[in-house]
Amino acid sequence: MSANASMEEFEALLQESFEIDTPSEGSVVKGRVIAVEAGQAIIDVGYKMEGRVDLKEFANPGEAPEIAVGDEVEVFLDRVENARGEAVISRDKARREEAWDRLEKAYADEARVEGAIFGRVKGGFTVDLGGAVAFLPGSQVDVRPVRDAGPLMGLKQPFQILKMDRRRGNIVVSRRAILEESRAEQRAEVIGKLTEGDAVDGVVKNITEYGAFVDLGGVDGLLHVTDMAWRRVNHPSEILSIGETIKVQVIKINKETHRISLGMKQLQADPWDSVEAKFPLESVHTGRVTNITDYGAFVELEPGVEGLVHVSEMSWTKKNVHPGKIVSTSQEVEVMVLEIDTAKRRVSLGLKQTMRNPWDVFAETHPEGTVVEGEVKNITEFGLFIGLPGDIDGMVHLSDLSWDQRGEEAIQQYRKGDVVQAVVTEVDVEKERISLSIKALGGDKFAEAVGGVKRGSVITVTVTAIEDGGIEVEYEGMKSFIRRSDLSRDRGEQRPERFQVGDHVDVRVTNIDSKTRRLGLSIKAREIAEEREAVEQFGSSDSGASLGDILGAALKGDD
Question: Which pTM was predicted?
Fold first, then answer.
């Protein structure tokens, strides 16, 4: 009985020792390094089991392995025995299991974890979190896009776990969250010390199209391009460079968003305070064209003071043209101050006012009656436009083209580019109009011919043609026509054939038409007028005297 009892106890103790000493596969066990050879560490995991682990599994990313004979380490037992009779163990898997336990606790506590970036993958980087590999998205590396992540590789630093799934082996971390948190603390501390209106030193950290970010010692402020100088600044790089130390004034602090607005020009004197004294109205100054728009050009009178030359104030003669065809950027020009609005910080300037009005000059140098010569610039339905000195135009109306032809006929004789002469008939400076006349070049023959003739005058004309309806006559080179009914008071004598070409005939002027340039003439009217005059002088027709008697008496009286 005792022997049987002793055997049973021995078996129980042996089984217990097997259960205690023999580790189960898929678990983490402790072992001792008994040798290091051929790039591997030989580890005794107990129960006379040994396994091999590559030395690289004992190294952190970017570091050399730290392992020596006698060190105790934890490894993961994959299998108790392989084909060579050795245990299959892994240090990486042991670290991973240990790390997952630790990371799950940190994730639950929202605590930071330490890791090192060791590789680059699509969309981001891989991070070693002490055995577990996590994914770091590119957007979570820094608060601003990182062009070169080389300096961050292999560097131990804190991360925040954003998401983890142990079953899928998925961990997502963020470095940016840590930076923003520490940055927010630092910003709060720095902002607490700043007051609006303070003048502080800062370092230009970044330059953009619209301004520059300035580091004020842990917190960035925005220096907008419009607050860099009183003058126009097209791009911040004109006056700033990255790394430069500058003095700025704190313009505004937003306590909620922690945004700081800065200014440089606020530390300088405002040139607009003395604009009215330096640039009185109607004074002329030299300025530089800084910008050209569709509606005019901006001219800098001095740094910080710009005025607008509206397109309507740029030229006396060039209308409806783009300002860029009159001036160019950076060109120095003379301008006149037309208006100043200090409240709105606006100065209205004039370019054409620095030059004499060409219509004034023309009126002085070309009084009415002056003969001018110019090129036909344009032909319209109502006349010709002639180019004149001073880059201005004068107009010859249809009615001023010819004495003898209708305007519509006369204008057909002209073409653009023809050089013609004309007489100045009127200059209207206010309306910027110059009236010219081509027909006046030879003088007004009609006016000269009838200068001393009045309606009712008796003149002597020469017969030039005999027609059925009357006769054509000429007076001082001017042609007129006497109708048959006006050839005599007596109907029997109203015959054109009783006249011959070259006859001189006395006629009475019945009408002077300057428009048609014709004289109204009548022999009949002359005879009636003479009869009336004789009757008034020698007696009434009722006294019994005949017309012959009266005329005979009048003739004797003349003798």
Answer: 0.44
